[in-house]
Design goal:
11 helices; three-stranded antiparallel sheet; 366 residues; Aminoglycoside 3'-phosphotransferase, Chain: A, domain 2; alpha+beta; single chain; Phosphorylase Kinase, domain 1
Length: 366
C-alpha cells in the first residue's frame, strides 16, 4: 500500500485495496472522515473513517494516523525518527506483549517524514483526558498495563532484533532531547515564569551538564521497551461490572532502557498532584508486584525502583521543557494539556528534590 500525502487521499478505492484479500474482495463505496482527539497530540493527524461497503464486509470504522501538518512539529518528529518507530512497534512488538493495543490493518512509512497507520477503532472505549487526570482505580489498572509492556520485554531487548528502537543513551533520541532542551529552555522559562521556582528557572547550566549522565543511568539494566509518551491522552478505558480495561496507543517515542521511566512520566504529569503525592508509592509497588506475578521479574526491589523513579522524573523534565517551550499546540485544548503537565511536573520535581540528583550525574558515565 502506498503512503498518502494527506487525508484527502483516503478514498473509498484506497480502503477497498487495503481491506481486500485474494479470496475475499471488498468494495468500499464511501469513506467518511471525522477528526479525532483534536488538541490531544502534537505529531499526528488522526481521523476516524466510517466505511460503507457495496461488496464484502469489513470494519464499520477505522482510525487513520498521518503526520502532523504543523511544520515545526513535523520537523521535530523527523529529528527523533518518531514515525518509523511507531510503525515498527506495531509491526514487530505489539503482538509480543499482553498490553492491549489496537489491531493493526496497515503500518507503512515512506521516508522519515511520512507514514500511515490504519488501526482498530476503539471509539466505544472511553478516551483518557490529560487535563482531567484519572481516578485511583484506573491508575491501578494503568500500572498493571505498564507492567505487561515492560515485563514482556524485560532484559530481552538486546538480542539484535531491536535496532529500530533507540537506546535512551547514546542515541538520536538522547542527542535530540539534549539539543531540544537547551534550545527550548529560555522560552519555557518565559512562558511559565509564574509557576517555576527560582531554582528550576535558573537550573539550565546544571541540568544540561548532568543530562547525559541521567540518560545513561536510565539506559542501564534492567532494560525493556519504554513507551516514551505514556499519558492519559494516549489511553482508552472500558469498564464493566467493576472491571476496568485499558488500551494504549501512540507509540511514536519508544526507547530501550529502565521501564520506571514510563511511571515517572505518567505519575508526574498525568494525574492530579495530590493523588500522586498520596498514592505514588503504592502504585509503584503495584507495578513491581505485577512484574513479579505475571512476568517472573525478580532482583529489582522498591528502593532501587523508587530511586530510579526520581531520576526518571528528572530525565523526563526534558519532555516538559521541549513541549512547553518549543512545540506548537493545535488549539486551546492542546495548550491546556501542556499547562497541566507542566504544573504537575514542577510539583513532582520539587517534591522529590530532583535537582539535587544532578551532582551525581555531572558526566555521561553516570
Amino acid at each position: 500500500m502506498n503512503v498518502p500525502d494527506s487525508p484527502a487521499a483516503l478514498t473509498p478505492a484506497y480502503f477497498s485495496d487495503l481491506l481486500s484479500k485474494p479470496d475475499a474482495p471488498v468494495v468500499v463505496s464511501a469513506a467518511r472522515q471525522e477528526p479525532v482527539g483534536v488538541g490531544a497530540g502534537m505529531m499526528s493527524i488522526i481521523r476516524r473513517v466510517h466505511l460503507t461497503y457495496s461488496e464484502g464486509t469489513g470494519p464499520a470504522s477505522v482510525i487513520v494516523k498521518l503526520p502532523t501538518e504543523i511544520l515545526q512539529n513535523r520537523e521535530i518528529a523527523v529529528q527523533f525518527d518518531n514515525f518509523r518507530r511507531e510503525v515498527e512497534f506495531y509491526r514487530q512488538a505489539a503482538s509480543g506483549t499482553p498490553m492491549r493495543t489496537p489491531l493493526t490493518y496497515l503500518a507503512e512509512t515512506d521516508g522519515p517524514a511520512n507514514f500511515i497507520l490504519v488501526l482498530e477503532d476503539l471509539g466505544d472505549w472511553d478516551l483518557g483526558d490529560q487535563v482531567a487526570g484519572t481516578t485511583l482505580p484506573r491508575a491501578r489498572t494503568i500500572m498493571k498495563a505498564l507492567a505487561d509492556l515492560h515485563g514482556a520485554f524485560w532484559n530481552r531487548v538486546d538480542d539484535g532484533d531491536w535496532e529500530w528502537l533507540p537506546n535512551n543513551y547514546p542515541s538520536v533520541m538522547s542527542e535530540g532531547l539534549s539539543a531540544g532542551t537547551e534550545a527550548s529552555w529560555d522560552s519555557f522559562v518565559d512562558l511559565f515564569a509564574d509557576e517555576l521556582t527560582p531554582a528550576l528557572s535558573h537550573a539550565k547550566s546544571a541540568y544540561m551538564a548532568g543530562l547525559a549522565g541521567v540518560q545513561n543511568w536510565m539506559n542501564s539494566t534492567p532494560r525493556t521497551i519504554i513507551h516514551g509518551d505514556y499519558r492519559m491522552d494516549n489511553l482508552f478505558f472500558r469498564e464493566s461490572d467493576g472491571d476496568i480495561e485499558v488500551a494504549c496507543c501512540d507509540f511514536q517515542a519508544p526507547v530501550r532502557g529502565r521501564g520506571i521511566q514510563d511511571l515517572a512520566y505518567f505519575l508526574s504529569g498525568s494525574i492530579d498532584t495530590e493523588m500522586r503525592r498520596e498514592h505514588e508509592q503504592d502504585l509503584i509497588r503495584l507495578w513491581l508486584d505485577t512484574l513479579a506475578s505475571r512476568h517472573g521479574v525478580t532482583g529489582y526491589d522498591f528502593d532501587e525502583a523508587f530511586y530510579d523513579y526520581r531520576v526518571g522524573i528528572l530525565m523526563m523534565w526534558t519532555y516538559v521543557v521541549i513541549v512547553g517551550g518549543g512545540m506548537a499546540a493545535e488549539n486551546e485544548r492542546g495548550d491546556n494539556w501542556v499547562s497541566a503537565m507542566v504544573s504537575r511536573s514542577i510539583a513532582a520535581m520539587q517534591d522529590h528534590d530532583c535537582l539535587s540528583l544532578l551532582a551525581r550525574f555531572s558526566d555521561a558515565s553516570g
